[in-house]
Design goal:
The structure is a homodimer. Chain A is mainly alpha-helical. Chain A has a single domain, classed as Winged helix-like DNA-binding domain superfamily/Winged helix DNA-binding domain (Arc Repressor Mutant, subunit A, Orthogonal Bundle), CATH 1.10.10. Chain A has helices at residues 12-16, 19-26, 29-38, 45-51, 57-69, 91-126, 129-132; strands at residues 43-44, 73-78, 84-89. The longest helix of chain A has 36 residues, at 91-126. Chains A and B meet through helix 1, helix 2, helix 3 and helix 6 of A and helix 1, helix 2, helix 3 and helix 6 of B. Chain A binds a DNA duplex through helix 4 and helix 5. Chains A, B: Pfam families: HxlR. Chains A, B: Residues 17-115 form the HTH hxlR-type domain.
Chain lengths: 136, 136
DNA sequence: CCGTATCCGCTCGGATACTG
DNA sequence: CAGTATCCGAGCGGATACGG
């Protein structure tokens, strides 16, 4: 945000493409699901819509466009009737894939532990009258 | 994957803790920065604030609380004056660490390519009058 | 089948001010 | 030092309707 003034001549990419933003796009809530789903091979719009639980059509479209714009997905339109559109990973995205699945597998392994940690945290926060008591 | 029949015991954590939500917390915009920064060893609040470019105090606090609640960070208060609070990764989070750095390194490697892909996409979208023309 | 467009509630998140 | 509290604008995201 408050970037000290860089030379505008060469490194536009540094300004235009902060790491945090790239990661945010790539590791976004739906992006991971989409990329993992598309990793098996070309996949159609409605297949994505059905395979990703809870995503709305709007959010699917928005994420697909953003991933395409970032060069992670290619969109291929087959001029048939009815229309058929397929999305595939680019080389860049295939390289990303293993990190994503690693993340997902980690989340699966620790999902239970996380749920327990939340319960513990919440019950602890609820029962601390001797410290959190604002006297009336 | 989406609709295999779950046992009741798993169903509880499944409801309380959807995979997508876990990933969203863990791979969130600021979460990654925080976890990576805390991986080197116990780190203080202001150290985090200074080392993470662009984060506000509010967002830092919110993310720290959420990570603590999810069992990824431990918060240790040293009863000194002035007060000293340190955050450390839990075992669960240290296991996550390598996937996160993998992601970050990927983002660094391809930051330039992504910036170029965006430029290409935008210029293509701007100059396609023969296909995108909405006839009046 | 594969989207786009519009409305709108709701949350995110920065700015600011105040405590132990 | 390490937060909490409150305000408030921006934009995310669901619902709905429509088009090629």
């Amino acid at each position: 945000m408050s970037r000290s003034h860089t030379h505008v001549s060469e490194e536009v990419t540094d300004q235009a493409c902060p790491l945090v933003e790239v990661i945010d796009h790539v590791a976004g809530k739906w992006s991971i699901s989409i990329l993992v789903a598309a990793a098996r091979g070309p996949i159609r719009f409605t297949e994505l819509e059905r395979s990703i639980e809870g995503i709305s059509r709007r959010m699917l479209t928005l994420n697909l466009r953003r991933l395409e714009r970032d060069g992670l997905l290619t969109r291929t339109v087959h001029p048939t009737v009815p229309p058929k559109v397929e999305y595939s990973l680019t080389a860049m995205a295939r390289e990303l894939y293993s990190y994503l699945t690693g993340l997902v597998e980690w989340a699966e392994r620790h999902r239970g532990a996380i749920a327990q940690a939340r319960t513990a945290y919440d019950s602890k926060a609820a029962a601390v009258p001797q410290a959190g008591q604002p006297h009336p």
